[in-house]
Amino acid sequence: MDLFTAIKGRRSCRNFLPEPIDQATIEKLLEAATWAPSPLNTQPWEFIVITNPEVKEKIFSEGERCRKWALEKTGWKWLGAYSIDFLKIAPVIIAVIGDPKKSGVDMFTEEGPMGYQAACAAAIQNMHLAAHSLGLSSLWFTLFDKKVLREILGIAFEKMPLALVCIGKPESSSASPPRKDYKEKTTYLY
Ligand SMILES: Cc1cc2nc3c(=O)[nH]c(=O)nc-3n(C[C@H](O)[C@H](O)[C@H](O)COP(=O)(O)O)c2cc1C
Prior knowledge:
alpha+beta, 4 strands, 43% helix
């Protein structure tokens, strides 16, 4: 698939089929992730591949807890109707864990380490694009408490669980949320 077709055609999926994904495909996605850029080539990511239904159920319960908390905090109606059943149905969830110590020079700045998050985000996007090019769909999911997710997945305190990437075949195609024209977002300093 042409890169621009992949970039424009990728959509967040929230309705997966339970059909399993083979190991070779999972490894292709992981390899795509590792070709992302990172500060000083620190490669600050680690991955946990989750297919175990009991672990998915725990992640779902944590997501539900956070969804209800967010609904109460914000009153946003869409959160009341937002189903996260896909956490139980998606055949694979890949947790992306970042290492704040692998952040390049910015770990010594006042704002603290951010480079590792940027690098992990690039790795996550690579995974999304690779999944799409292989005919799969994916979702970047962040509705969880880092502390609780560390407990569920056995992640060390120093490491940062940044995202859960749900992957599978889509049950149906999702609508394309519109984008603002880049012209509205761009300033040229010629
Ligand atoms: C950092 C980040 C966090 C996100 N977290 C969630 C999430 O928790 N749940 C969800 O359903 N979608 C989540 N998304 C997906 C966005 O909602 C989605 O990318 C956006 O609406 C644009 O739709 P598209 O991906 O289909 O183009 C997240 C995306 C990003 C980049």
